[in-house]
Specification:
CATH topology of one domain: Rossmann fold
CATH architecture of one domain: 3-Layer(aba) Sandwich
Radius of gyration: 23 Å
Order of helices and strands: HEEHHEHEHEEHEEHHHEHEEHEE
CATH superfamily of one domain: Vaccinia Virus protein VP39
Family: Belongs to the methyltransferase superfamily. METTL16/RlmF family.
Shape: globular
Structural class: alpha/beta
Oligomer: single chain
Pfam families: Methyltransf_10
Number of strands: 13
EC number: 2.1.1.-
Strand content: 15-25%
Distance between the termini: 44 Å
GO cellular component, one term: nucleus
InterPro entries: METTL16/PsiM, METTL16/RlmF, SAM-dependent_MTases_sf
Length: 402
């Protein structure tokens, strides 16, 4: 009887290695002993471990406050009901953007001494990304929002930290005229013309990216009703290294309250958008088409892995040069990061002195029947050309010479 092949165990992504909490998770007992205001929220389980009730908003808010004070020297507070961020998870996002900026995926136009400048879409009352980015890495930020309460408390959180306040601008975005963005099917797009750079897609979701390479844009009926997100918020002539966003993940406020295991608060403006995160991020993509290289990197957090496939297809349809994805892990919570750029990727120089030629073969699974072997070869040729390689397609012999 043939032995069954053991499935390879997929290693779960871990917290970012540069994250302050990678090797030293928060010690609730120590924090309770140092900060009396946190002590009432800490209890001990049967195994003697200190814990907090994650469904208690006051407990999670106080934990965020003491972590920002203890580990980042930041004074911080938000009023009841505002979205309360988790510090380790938000730090992961900051460090991933740092990875993108340090990489040679796209050429850098910065000179030594230039301060990295970011744009936080919907910074909220918590203003967490500008505070962390400025305190950890010395970045400057524009944090935008439309809600008066969010703007008021974001400004307070900046002013209460004078050592970094000069690096952060809180900007009110005019609600302006409501626009409607409706995703449309792109059935006439050719595979070879709209090819994403698979080498730049994160290891977490290559399957979705590969599928997006050969599938037409699905055109899910998700629509965004609201003002432009970046257009109008970015001033004429402004240049940023990146933008980042913690989008409204849900389509209804009822959906937002379905997780009984956590209580992070959040107003409807922070949590809910018609069409959910897919529609909201799609609007950012449409704005990025207009702004193009005003940002070196456009990024957003994504709450549902299933949305990555559609969003990557959308990016392919508008002709971005590079796409990257990653996974953010904190405890049992998973989020995904999506990044794209219109900056042409750095061309990789391939030596003309090759000792020997190698013939590489591979198998592609999951392709839909309407795509022939020729389509596959054309997509492979487009992929290598986009990556800066010199290649030639030979349909008679059915190979690509790279």
């Amino acid at each position: 009887m043939p032995s069954k092949k053991k499935r390879k165990r997929v290693e779960r992504p871990s917290i970012h290695p540069r994250n302050k909490y990678s090797d030293n998770p928060p010690d609730f007992a120590q924090l309770a002993s140092q900060y009396p205001s946190f002590e009432p929220f800490v209890f001990y389980s049967r195994d003697g471990r200190p814990r907090i009730d994650w469904t208690d908003y006051n407990a999670t808010r106080e934990l965020t406050r003491v972590l920002l004070l203890h580990d980042h020297a930041l004074n911080w507070w938000i009023p009841d009901g505002q979205l309360c961020p988790t510090v380790p998870n938000r730090s992961n996002y900051i460090h991933w953007i740092e990875d993108l900026l340090m990489s040679d995926i796209i050429p850098s136009t910065r000179t030594n001494g230039d301060i990295i400048k970011g744009f936080d879409i919907g910074t909220g009352a918590n203003c967490i990304y500008p505070l962390l980015g400025a305190s950890l890495l010395g970045w400057s930020f524009v944090g935008s929002d439309v809600a008066d309460v969010a703007l008021e408390w974001a400004e307070k959180n900046v002013v209460n930290n004078p050592h970094i306040s000069g690096l952060i601008e809180i900007r009110k975005v005019d609600g302006g005229e409501t626009t409607v963005y409706q995703e449309e099917s792109q059935t006439d797009q050719s595979v070879s013309k709209h090819c994403i750079n698979l080498s730049e897609v994160g290891v977490v979701d290559r399957e979705a990216a590969a599928s997006a390479l050969f599938e037409s844009y699905p055109g899910a009926n998700k629509s965004y009703h609201g003002p432009s997100i970046l257009l109008g918020a970015v001033k004429d002539g402004e240049k940023f290294d990146f933008c980042m966003c913690n989008p409204p993940f849900f389509e209804t406020i009822e959906e937002a309250g379905l997780n009984p295991k956590t209580s992070c608060g959040g107003t409807p403006a922070e949590m809910v958008c018609p069409g959910g995160e897919q529609a909201f991020i799609s609007r950012i993509i449409e704005d990025s088409v207009q702004l193009k290289q005003s940002f070196r990197w456009y990024t957003s957090m994504v709450g549902r892995k299933s949305n990555l496939k559609t969003l990557i297809s959308h990016l392919r349809s508008v002709g971005v040069s590079v796409v990257k994805t990653t996974e953010f892990v904190q405890g049992q919570t998973c989020r995904w990061g999506l990044a794209w750029s219109f900056v042409p990727p750095a061309r990789k120089i391939i030596s003309s002195h090759v000792a020997e030629k190698r013939v590489l073969s591979f198998t592609l699974e999951g392709l839909q029947r309407q795509y022939s072997a020729v389509n596959v070869l054309q997509a492979v040729e487009s992929f290598f050309c986009t990556s800066g390689a010199s290649c030639k397609l030979n349909l008679d012999s059915f190979y690509v010479d790279v």
